[in-house]
Amino acid sequence: MSEVIENSFFRFEDRSDLTFIISEEKNYSYFELFSEAKSLAEKLALNRVKKHDYVPLVIEDNLEFIRTVIALWYLNAIPVPINTRLLNSEIYALTSDNGFQLIITDKPELKSTYKDYSLILSTDLRIDLKDSFSFKVPERDEEALVIFTSGSSGKPKGVVHTFSSLMNSIQNGSSVLKQASSSRWLASLPLYHISGFQILCRSLFHGSSVILTDKTQFETLRSAIEIFKPTHLSLVSSQIKKIVETKMKPPPEITLTLAGGGVISDYLIEQMYLLGWNPVRVYGSSETASFVTAANAEDIFIKAGTAGRPIKNVKIVIDDSGEILVSTNSLFKKYLNDEEQTSMQIKHGFYHSGDIGRLDEEGFLFIESKRNDLIVTGGENVNPTEIESQILKIDGVKEVCVFSKDDETWGQIVCAAIVTDIKLDEQEIQNQLRKVIADFKVPKKYFFVDSLPKTQLGKILREKVKSFL
């Protein structure tokens, strides 16, 4: 077997003895699912998908999503997972802004939105297991993924990763995760997030299993944990809070639980530890292909609030302004269609995170403020600038400042301070926002105020608003 295959996500493609997918409906071996992906790749090639195409995936079904990702890789095309919680209008804006020409979806209702696009319905692509097509495994330095993350301007940025950066992230975290071919990862986070997508990639890399659930709501996850007994989990604050509230015990097979995707309190980590979940708090971003620091519960008992020490092949420095800079072999290649932003974020081999923090004398990282006012609520990234622009379109709104408040369940919640010149009802604002933005972006708390604090140049002081409300 060649070095390329040995070091790719394809080295177990012929293994019928290894279970890749575990679900209530059916289990799939690596050989079975990769064979179906090859058949799907043939169909996609006939639908004009070609090498180096960026192909958005608007697919709810996890099994169909995974099959399509592998099929695109066989064609050396690049999957672009899209958040399926977005409104159709938001999806349309995202895809049109980036010049995508072809979209794969399992949502027939998108046909009316994408009249000028090539729209491929995944349900129309019949799997035929005739082995008639030969595919070359992609090289390590080929582009493998575009993950969208909220930008400081409110416009989402497409983070481009190569196979190499994804695999390097997996290898860097291997001493933390202790994953093997016998491991079972529960797909407990959406696959359109880097944290969810890397669950898939880690399993491909190690020849281990992915447990698929229909949804990531707590009761569905609880049932999947009880039935399938995963060894590895990755959870966000809202899921962890439910486990703690219900005092749910882990299966004896559990190896560890990654805790990330936003603010997770020391109290929740402590309670998870006492329940036996072996939690590990992690810090990273889409740009770093997953976590770059890790802290187990014992670390957090000694170093309250820490995000942990850098993992293998990661160097972290704090610049004079307090910004966290990250150097690692798992950094993203570029932002899609944005060379200027790429050059601003990666300088001299270091990724400028925008987060503010400090390192103690033993090398433990502490996050003091998150990047560019980004709000992370229940694992979803929300840019306040985007929400403010929509609220300002509502009649009667003069000024607005969107900010976060810490919340034990969601990690953070979206809040809005609003200056109006007429009396506005909170419910009316929510109803109007739900027509134009996804529900998770709609503020949960509203503060109607007479004025907002500003600089001499008229810029609203977001942190000051946050402090007095």
Strand content: 25-35%
Number of beta strands: 26
Determine the structural class based on helices, strands and strand pairing: alpha/beta
What is the correct CATH architecture of the largest domain? Answer: 3-Layer(aba) Sandwich
- The rounded distance between the terminal residues' Cα atoms is 62 Å
Strand order of the largest sheet: 11-12-13-14-15
Report the radius of gyration as a whole number of Å: 22 Å
Work out the count of structural domains. 2
Question: Helicity level, as a percent range?
Answer: 25-40%
Mind summarizing the main beta sheet? 5 strands, mixed
User: Which topology of the largest domain does CATH recognise?
Assistant: Rossmann fold
Overall pLDDT score: 91
The CATH class of the largest domain is identified as Alpha Beta
Number of helices: 15
Kindly report the name of the CATH homologous superfamily of the largest domain.
Answer: ANL, N-terminal domain
Shape: globular
Question: Which regions have little confidence, pLDDT < 50, spanning 5+ residues?
Answer: 1-5
Helix-strand layout with pairing:
Layout: H1 3-6, E1 19-22, E2 28-29, H2 30-46, E3 54-58, H3 62-74, E4 78-81, H4 88-97, E5 102-105, E6 118-121, E7 143-149, E8 157-162, H5 163-172, H6 174-177, E9 184-186, H7 194-206, E10 209-211, H8 218-228, E11 232-235, H9 237-246, E12 256-259, H10 266-275, E13 279-285, E14 290-296, H11 297-302, E15 309-310, E16 314-318, E17 323-328, E18 334-335, H12 339-345, E19 346-347, E20 350-359, E21 365-369, E22 375-377, E23 380-382, H13 384-391, E24 397-407, E25 411-420, H14 426-433, E26 445-448, H15 462-468
Parallel strand pairs: 1-10, 3-4, 3-5, 5-6, 9-10, 11-12, 12-13, 25-26
Antiparallel strand pairs: 1-2, 7-8, 8-18, 13-14, 14-15, 16-17, 17-20, 19-20, 20-21, 22-23, 24-25
Helix pairs in contact: 2-3, 9-10
